[in-house]
């Protein structure tokens, strides 16, 4: 933490100078139990869902109400201290890491403030877990559509900050398309309403600008989301293939047929076998080189017709079998394997790297072949499990970081894979965010003026750059920021390609299919 | 016209301190809004497809491309951009996004902001900026695409956009239900349709004067559009027939709906919670003041009032709006179009909050892009 500028008179509202004094003052706001300052206690907060980065926070504070959160932010503002908002810490880009600064943990803010069934919307606190919201609204025949695979653990606040997606976002859209309004506390301590709970609003779409801002624009304290009626019918298919290429072509063919499946997920051979060897075994054919998990939903009559079309497209595209889940139990089992795939990979080797690039869907066969070639070149095993319908890849490599030679090969392979995705016209991240992990790639896809425009936008929300400093846009890309570097705020600037792998800890999420 | 030409024009304006009015095809989207500028920057000639891979269902076009051209290009591949803003398809995609204009399809396919994947714009310093990308899912960097959508050209001149397309439905049918019964009966039909499992592409109710202008008869009407495969459309038509007496009409009717604004001098959009519209719809639809067309989209939660249609008698406008609308909790009263001299009176600035002002100052520090169009910004 930066020592604040000396203040002669230590009145209650003046700046305090030591870590213990800051902790004390925070404890006055939230209660002593909810402030952590011992290094050993803070270890839990030194990473997120992405093994590979560790940053040790200075302090962690856990407000128990919106008022407390506001008081905490206002206190830090007065002190000029930087902070990092944190939800469940399942993020996969190092976004919630705090390098020697304060973490504001929001998991205690878990009230579902209101549910308006008739108008299909709900207002929640940021620490509400995604799946809990869904369980809460299910009895009313409603659902909250964005369903990250980490839904059993991740928070709505974290979803908003990352603009999270999930398997069903192919048809239903991502978090951005389902958030109507937010109450935000800006890093200055000021409270603003973005968007509208009640209707449409003209003027700039500040709601849209905030979603996906990765904690750099302040804290979302109340979030109003749109709810979706549960579909009348849901049918889930499993198609298996003897080649990755065939499954990739079928993916394109399904999209080209005009049908928008609710979900269209891809798993390759190595992933299938890892899942089948784990406790999440879903009954996938172990000898297949790829499977597609396809879900169709909507009105009964329409789904039945689409099901036949999809089955035919799969068989025409050399699917060996197309199996349709007979009941809800079978359907859940098929989904369980998909949603737990990351967890299952923890069995392969102690460490795991996850990527999140998006490519144009027609480039799937080509890019998957390139990824395979890269994996052979470096002698690494890539597991591909991803949102194929969106072209959102998740190539993962399990490896042992204790072997420096292997680590080096793995990282070189990952950089080459990212390059291939960028060259195919893609994006570096589809849903996990830039955080620390992908900052080094930002300049590969955005020009200097574009990055500067992002810095300027951030500066409007957070002129002192105290909220989640050092994330998303590399500091050196910001014109105005370069000029003041060496200022009094400590802004950790991570090197572009840092990988400090660590073991995959107990799986953070216990997801299940919707 | 090219991005470089826009850059030059903006830079020259900065140097000579002469603000620009940004214009595309100047069809309906200028909406009479006041702009304090003597020079016009026209994007009319900056049109055409930059990239289209039908298999990806994405399309990249120059901002001056008319919606009609997008319709034509995509239809050749059985695809479409489900965006039907009021007005005609003569308008451009750049203006549609800059003004966030949406029509009846938006309750199903989303607002313009939901269909935009990425864009290029020139800010008020003459710098070329890109936000988003060309793929259907993307969270890289802060979201400049959403920021520019609906900013009415005040943050940047949009030069190129990438859009999400959909496959054209195999079947696309529209039905009209004449609401001939009492107010109570009309209310019942509206309620039953809303609570049903139907998932139409578009659903709108029209007041009597609007119905006359659409040449659909003498009673308030519900227009309902179904799309998808043959089975799903047939099932829905059957279900609808259990509720009311739908009569099939030409899909062309939607083009006429979009043009109801035609000669109007005033268009007001009121948005609120969907339930509130349901409650008040039947009464509002019964209103019959010549020249005032009311349409209600209960799913989007929007009521639109068009004043000054061709059958207007005298200047009954403003008074009639007052009498037909009493949504106490409605938050968004949005003026889409007003007589030029009334603008300054009704909307001093819709972006008066410090964040919006800060963004404006950062992106257009000299206030040369469409000054005044959203009221006084700086
Ligand atoms: C097994 C597994 C599967 C996953 N699958 C998916 C998937 O399918 N789709 C997907 O999109 N992601 C997925 N993720 C990533 C992750 O779960 C999401 O990014 C999720 O949205 C993060 O939520 P969180 O509460 O854990 O946020 P955290 O990790 O705690 O924080 C993430 C970012 O949000 C900020 N933040 C948190 N709360 C707030 C707030 N209230 N206001 C402002 N900023 C805030 C933090 O500062 C940080 O930058 C997966 C992760 C795991 C481990």
Topology of helices and strands:
The complex is a heterodimer of chains A (about 525) and B (about 375).
Chain A: H1 19-30, E1 35-36, H2 39-42, E2 59-61, H3 66-79, E3 83-86, E4 102-105, E5 112-116, E6 121-124, H4 130-137, E7 142-143, H5 156-162, H6 169-172, E8 179-185, E9 191-195, H7 206-210, E10 219-226, E11 228-229, E12 233-241, H8 244-256, E13 263-268, H9 269-277, E14 290-298, H10 300-316, E15 319-324, H11 328-339, H12 341-345, E16 351-354, H13 364-378, E17 382-386, E18 395-399, H14 404-423, H15 439-445, H16 448-461, H17 479-484
Parallel strand pairs in A: 2-4, 3-4
Antiparallel strand pairs in A: 1-2, 5-6, 6-10, 7-11, 8-9, 8-10, 12-14, 12-15, 13-14, 13-17, 16-18, 17-18
Helix pairs in contact in A: 1-3, 8-13, 13-14
Chain B: H1 3-16, E1 20-23, E2 39-42, E3 49-53, E4 58-62, H2 67-75, E5 79-80, H3 93-98, H4 106-109, H5 112-115, E6 116-123, E7 128-132, H6 144-148, E8 156-164, E9 166-167, E10 171-178, H7 183-195, E11 202-206, H8 208-213, E12 221-228, H9 230-243, E13 247-249, H10 253-258, E14 266-271, H11 274-286, E15 292-297, E16 302-307, H12 317-324, E17 332-337, H13 340-346, H14 354-363
Parallel strand pairs in B: 1-2
Antiparallel strand pairs in B: 3-4, 4-8, 5-9, 6-7, 6-8, 10-12, 10-13, 11-12, 11-15, 14-16, 14-17, 15-16
Flavin-adenine dinucleotide (FAD) binds near residues 148, 157, 161 and 214 of chain A.
């Amino acid at each position: 933490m930066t020592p604040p500028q000396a203040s002669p008179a230590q009145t209650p509202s003046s700046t305090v100078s030591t870590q213990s004094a800051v902790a004390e003052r925070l404890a006055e706001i939230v209660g002593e139990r909810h402030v952590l300052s011992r290094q050993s206690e803070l270890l839990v907060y030194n990473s997120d869902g992405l093994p590979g980065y560790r940053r040790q926070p200075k302090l962690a504070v856990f407000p128990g109400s919106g008022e407390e959160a506001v008081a905490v932010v206002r206190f830090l503002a007065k002190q000029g201290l930087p902070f990092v908002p944190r939800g469940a810490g399942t993020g996969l880009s190092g976004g919630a890491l705090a390098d020697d600064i304060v973490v504001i943990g929001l998991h205690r803010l878990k009230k579902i403030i209101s549910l308006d069934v008739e108008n299909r919307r709900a207002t929640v606190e940021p620490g509400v877990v995604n799946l809990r919201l869904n369980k809460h609204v299910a009895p009313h025949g409603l659902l909250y559509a964005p369903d990250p695979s980490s839904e059993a653990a991740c928070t709505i606040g974290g979803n908003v900050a990352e603009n999270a997606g999930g398997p069903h976002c192919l048809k239903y859209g991502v978090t951005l398309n389902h958030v109507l309004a937010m109450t935000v506390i800006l890093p200055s301590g000021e409270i603003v309403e973005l968007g509208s709970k009640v209707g449409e609003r003209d003027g700039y779409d500040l709601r849209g600008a905030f979603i996906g801002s990765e904690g750099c624009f302040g804290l979302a304290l109340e979030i109003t989301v749109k709810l979706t009626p549960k579909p009348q019918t849901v049918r889930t298919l499993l198609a298996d293939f003897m080649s990755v290429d065939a499954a990739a072509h079928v993916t394109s063919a399904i999209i080209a047929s005009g049908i928008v499946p609710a979900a269209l997920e891809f798993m390759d051979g190595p992933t299938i076998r890892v899942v089948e060897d784990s406790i999440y075994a879903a009954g996938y054919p172990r000898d297949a080189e790829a499977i597609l998990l396809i879900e169709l939903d909507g009105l009964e009559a329409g789904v039945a017709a689409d099901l036949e079309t999809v089955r035919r497209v799969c068989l025409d595209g050399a699917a060996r079998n197309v199996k349709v889940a007979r009941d809800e139990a079978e359907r859940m089992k098929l989904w369980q394997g998909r949603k737990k795939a990351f967890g299952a990979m923890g069995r392969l080797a102690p460490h795991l790297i996850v990527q999140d690039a998006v490519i144009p869907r027609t480039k799937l066969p080509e890019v998957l072949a390139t990824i395979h070639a890269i994996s052979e070149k470096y002698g690494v095993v890539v597991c591909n499990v991803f949102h194929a319908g969106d072209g959102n890849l998740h190539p993962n490599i399990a490896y042992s970081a204790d072997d420096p030679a292997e680590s080096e090969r793995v990282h070189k392979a990952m950089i080459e894979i990212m390059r291939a995705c960028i060259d195919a016209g893609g994006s570096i991240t589809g849903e996990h965010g830039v955080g620390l992990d992908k900052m080094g790639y930002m300049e590969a896809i955005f020009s200097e003026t574009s990055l500067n425009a992002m810095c300027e936008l951030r500066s409007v929300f957070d002129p002192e750059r105290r909220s989640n400093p050092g994330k998303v846009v590399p500091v050196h890309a910001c014109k105005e920021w370069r000029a003041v570097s060496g200022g009094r705020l400590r802004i950790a600037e991570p090197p572009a390609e840092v990988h400090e792998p660590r073991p995959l800890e107990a799986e953070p999420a216990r997801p299940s299919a919707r | 016209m090219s991005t470089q030409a826009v850059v030059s024009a903006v830079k020259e304006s900065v140097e000579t301190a002469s603000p620009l009015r940004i214009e595309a095809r100047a069809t309906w989207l200028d909406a009479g809004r006041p702009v304090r500028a003597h020079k016009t920057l026209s994007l009319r000639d900056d049109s055409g497809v930059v990239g289209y891979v039908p298999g990806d269902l994405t399309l990249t076009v120059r901002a001056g491309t008319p919606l009609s051209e997008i319709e034509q290009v995509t239809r050749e591949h059985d695809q479409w951009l489900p965006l039907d803003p009021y007005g005609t398809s003569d308008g451009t995609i750049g203006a549609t996004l800059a003004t966030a204009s949406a029509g009846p399809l938006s309750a199903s396919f989303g607002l313009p902001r939901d269909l935009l994947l990425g864009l290029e714009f020139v800010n008020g310093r003459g710098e070329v900026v890109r936000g988003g990308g060309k793929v259907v899912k993307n969270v890289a960097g802060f979201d400049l695409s959403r920021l520019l959508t609906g900013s009415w050209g005040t943050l940047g001149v949009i030069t190129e956009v990438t859009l999400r397309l959909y496959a054209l439905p195999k079947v696309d049918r529209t039905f009209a239900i004449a609401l001939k019964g009492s107010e109570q009966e009309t209310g019942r039909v509206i309620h039953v349709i809303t609570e049903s499992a139907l998932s139409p592409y578009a659903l709108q109710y029209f007041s009597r004067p609007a119905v006359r202008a659409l040449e659909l008869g003498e009673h308030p009407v519900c227009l309902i559009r179904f799309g998808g495969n043959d089975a799903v459309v047939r099932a829905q038509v059957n279900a609808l027939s259990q509720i009311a007496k739908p009569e099939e009409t030409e899909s062309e009717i939607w083009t006429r709906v979009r043009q109801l604004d035609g000669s109007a001098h005033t268009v007001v959009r009121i948005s609120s919670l969907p339930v509130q519209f349901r409650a008040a719809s039947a009464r509002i639809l019964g209103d019959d003041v010549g020249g005032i067309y009311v349409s209600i989209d209960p799913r989007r939660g929007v009521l639109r009032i068009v004043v000054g249609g061709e059958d207007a008698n005298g200047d009954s406008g403003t008074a009639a709006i007052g009498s037909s609308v009493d949504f106490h909790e409605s938050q968004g009263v949005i003026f889409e179009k007003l007589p030029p001299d009334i603008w300054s009176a009704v909307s001093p600035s819709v972006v008066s909050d410090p964040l919006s002002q800060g963004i404006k100052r950062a992106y257009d520090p000299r206030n040369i892009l469409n000054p005044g169009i959203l009221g006084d910004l700086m």
